[in-house]
Amino acid sequence: MAVAVGAIALVAIASACEPTPDPTGPTTTSTTVATPTGWRLVGGDEFDGTALDTTRWKPYHSNYGSANLQLECNTPANVAVSGGSLRIMSAKQTVATCPGSPVAMDYTSGFVGSRETGTYYPRFARFEIRAKVPHAQGLWPAFWLRHRNGASTAEVDVMEYFHSQLPGKVTQTLHLDGVANVSKRNSSFEAPTPTPGWHTFAAEIAPDPGGIRFTFLLDGAVTHTYVDPTHAWADKAPESATWDIAINQAVGGRWAGHPDGTLGLLELLGRCSISGTAPDGCTTTGIRRVDWSKPTQTTYEVDWVRVYQRAT
């Protein structure tokens, strides 16, 4: 049965399989970032244990994302918790059988969602993630909210990184009431690097005299806002339990490019990711190639996810 998340304790974490460890070891994280002024913590996860808390998150084992022609099989083995962080690891690895796929898949990655555990979050809240995202064509890390009735009703993309299209820029987007890209902004967060740093991506959702206001932030600074005047989606779920949280890293797909294909080419769209003439004259400036031999460069690492509501 689905539950609303009110004031829940941030506890240690419970169980997941882990692929071959990175020989350099996990990063030990620092979680000293203060609660934003005027907010109180009501949910999320600090990832301080030794395994995924499966009372809050379901690690997917499927080809979820195949509608976007993604290339990965999502498996629990590509998700690990240690050293104070959640790590979603992508790999060039053939799996003969992936649930939901009629064919073998040549890549694996990870996806965790709160929906399948019945964990839903309030309509009006601030959702934050502190993370390191890899810079490489074909990797598509994301942190997003799905409406209780499904992403086709409403979706809030708090963070997506399409490296080959926008090297060093995060994309934050709203899809509401079946309309895609209602509001969208790309913002620089760091120069492409093999050693990414920690950044905080957030979205605030609040009532507004004109409707419902969405405010997106990057490292505490507002990137853009949008007021939805109609918000039909809001009446389709309880105010106390409107959103679930999804954290994943896709491989390939229409907008990410092929990890081992022509650099700077979105082959499924038949165009260059930045500029030039496909397939051979594409701009490659700032676009990094996946180095599958270095797991630290193919891992999406999450220090924490925090959900706040306005202090009263």
Describe the structure.
The structure is a single chain. The chain has one domain (3-26, 39-310): Sandwich (Jelly Rolls). Helix content is 0%, strand content 43%. It contains no helices and 24 strands. The chain has strands at residues 3-4, 39-45, 58-59, 72-74, 79-82, 85-89, 91-95, 105-109, 111-113, 119-120, 125-132, 139-147, 154-160, 169-176, 179-188, 199-208, 211-218, 221-228, 243-251, 265-266, 271-272, 276-277, 281-282, 299-310. The strands form 6 sheets. Strands 2, 5, 6, 11, 16, 17, 18 and 24 form an 8-stranded antiparallel β-sheet that branches. A 7-stranded antiparallel β-sheet has the order 3-9-19-12-13-14-15, with no helix packed on it. It has a 3-stranded mixed β-sheet with strand order 4-8-7, with no helix packed on it. The chain is globular and about 55 Å long. The chain starts with a strand and ends with a strand.
Structural class: mainly beta
The best one-word shape is globular
SSE pattern: EEEEEEEEEEEEEEEEEEEEEEEE
The N- to C-terminal Cα distance equals 29 Å
Strand count? 24
How many structural domains are formed by the residues? 1
Radius of gyration: 19 Å
CATH class division: Mainly Beta
